[in-house]
Amino acid sequence: MSDAPVVDYHEMWAELGLDLPMHDALLEAVGGMYGGTFMTQKNRPEGMGYLDFVMSEVHGLRIKELHDFRKSGGKVVGTYCLYVPEELIRAAGAWSVGICAGAEWAYDQVEQILPRNTCALIKSMMGFKLGKVCPYLEESDLLIGETTCDGKKKAYEELGKLQNLYTMELPQMKRPKDVAFWRSELVDLIAKLEELTGTKITAESLAASIKEVNDKRRALQRVNAARAADPSPISGLDALLAVQVAFYDDVPRFTQSMNALADELEKRVADGVGVAPKGAPRILITGTPMALPNWKLHQIVENAGGVVVGEEMCTGSRYYEKLVNEDSATIDDMLDDLAAKYLDINCACFTPNDGRIDDVIRMAKDLKVDGVIDYALSFCGTYQIESAGVAKRVTDSGVPVLRIETDYSAEDVGQLSTRVEAFLEMVK
Amino acid sequence: MRVLGLDIGSRSVDAVWLCDGEIVDAAVADSGFDPASVAAAFVARGAHDAIVATGYGRHVARESFAANVVTEIKAYAIGASKLFPDARAVLDIGGQDTKAISLSAAGKVADFEMNDKCAAGTGKFLEVMAKALGFSLEELGSASMAAGPGIQISSMCTVFAESEVTGLVHRGEDRGRIARGLHESISRRTLGALRRVGAEGPLVFAGGVARNPAMVALITQGYAGDVLVPVEAQLVGAYGAALSHTTGGLS
Questions:
Q1: CB within 8 Å: B116 and A405
Q2: Which pTM value belongs to this model?
Q3: Considering the domain B85-229, what is its CATH architecture?
C-alpha cells in the first residue's frame, strides 16, 4: 500500500462536484476505520494485499478508471442491488458499479426528505447523494433502482429527482408468471441500456459477459469454499470485504486477484494455517446486506474470538453461489437463463421465502458452524419479520441462533459485544 | 488458590475473594466516574493469585490487571448455579441492563436475552423515576408495596417515562401508585424476556434491583416457578466470575 505513488485526485473530485472538505473528512474516517479494522488483523493471507490496495484507492484510482472510460465515450451504470443483472450492463458496453450505502452520512439532510425511522441502508444511500461525497454516484450516467422493499422503492423516487434513475419492477413471488414478468423487465432494461450506450447487445456480447461474471462468481466460490476448513484460512472481515469490492471493481482484474487469493487459501488449508486457532467458535451470519463500509458485526464477532465463516446475505453467498447457464446460443434463451438465475435469489422481499432458511441450514452444516447470527437493520421490515421464523427453524435444526437488530452507529457496540461474547461462550 | 472475581458494572464495582472455592471476603463500591481505579483499589489488596473480571469494565481489567474475562451472562449463570444447584433460570437486573438467562440441567447457559442499547427497565431507570417522584431508591420500593392499584405507565424509555411521570405528578396522582405502576411495567417486560428464553423451573433473581422488595414481589407473583433471591444479590456476578476460574470459563 505504502509503495503506491501519492496522487492528488482533488481536481478530479472537484470536477465531479463533490463537497471537497466533507469528502476529505469521509475518506479520513473510512481510512481510519479500515486501518483499525483490517490492518490490525493477525496472520492475514498475502492475497489480501490486492484488496488493501483497492480500498486505499477506493475514491482514487478506480474513479480515475471510470473517469477515463467515460471521457472516451463509455457509460457507467450505478446499481444498489444484486438483482440488477451486471451481465446486461456489460453486454451493452457499459460498466456496472455497486453504489455503497454502508455509513451514516448527512443524516441531517436526509431526514428533511425521508422519515427518521427509515433503515440505515436507505438513509445512507440518500446521504451520500445529498452530502455530495460519493464519486461513484457522480460518475454514474444512469442509476438503476429496483422494487425490492417499500423503503427503497419510495426512496428511489426521491433519488430520481436528483439523478437520472431507472427503476426495474422486481416481482415479490416466484411463480412461473413472475419469472415471465421478470424476463420482460430484462427485455425493457436492454432497451434502456442500448439507448444509453448506443451499443446493441448481441448473442456474442451477452454470452461473453455471462461467462465473465460467472468467472467472478466462481472465483468467489473458491475463496468462500476454503472457509469450510477449521481453522479458517481467511477472516470473515476479509471475506466480506471481497464480496463488497466485487460490486464495483474491474471484473477480469478482480477475478484474477480472487483466484490468486483462492490458490493461497487452498494452500493454507492444506498446511493447516488459519487466522484464528483451530476450534475457535465458527459463526454464520444471515440477514440484511452489509454495504461498504459496514463491517460492524464482523468486527465485533472476530474481536470476541469468533471467526465468521459464511454470510447468507446479498453481500455473501447470494452474490456468488448461483451461476447463469452458459450453454445457450440465442439472446432469447440467455434471457430465460438470466431471469431464472436472478429470481432464484432468496431475498426477504419475496413471499414465501423458505428457500432462505433452507440455505442457512445447509450452509450451517457445510461450514460446520457453532452458531448463526441473524442480523437485521432497524426498520428493515422484511428481514425483521423473517427473523423469528429463521431463528425457530435454525434452532430446531440444532444450531443456536442469536438475533441482532442494529444500525450503522457505534452507540450499541458495548451491549452488542457483550451479547456476542456471551453467545460465543454459550455455543462452545 | 486465591481468586479475585470482579464485576465492574455501570453503577458499582463488586469484588469477591475466593480461597480454594470458598468465599473469604467481598466488597462493593460505587463505580463513580473512574471504575477502573475503583477496581484497581481492590486489586491492590494483593490477596489473590488470579483475577477474573466481568461487567462493562472487563476488557479494561484484562488490559490493566491481566485479568481473565467472562461475560456477565456466563458469570451470573455460574454464580447462580453454585448458590442454588437446582436453578434453571437467572434474572439479573443491573444498573444499565437486564439479562434473562435459561439454564440447562447442567447449569450451562441454554439461551439468554439482554436489552439492546438503552437502559429501559433497569436500575438506572428506577433511579431516575425515584428522583422524579421525590423518593429515595429505598422509598420507591416500599411506597410501591404500600400503594393501591398501580397507574399504568406506557413508556419504558427512561426519558419518555420521566415525562409521563412528571405529567402524572402534575395531575395530582398518588405517587405511590405511580411507583407501583412503574414496577409493574418493568415486571411485565422482564417476565416477557424470561418467557422468550424458555425459562422454566427455579429462577434466581440477582443484581442490584433484586434488593428492591416490590420488584421481587411482582416477579414472584408473575413467574410460574420458585423465585430465589440470594442474600448478596449484587455479588452473584463477581462470585460467578471468580468461580469460572476453576470451572473453565477462561478466555
A1: yes
A2: 0.93
A3: 2-Layer Sandwich (3.30)
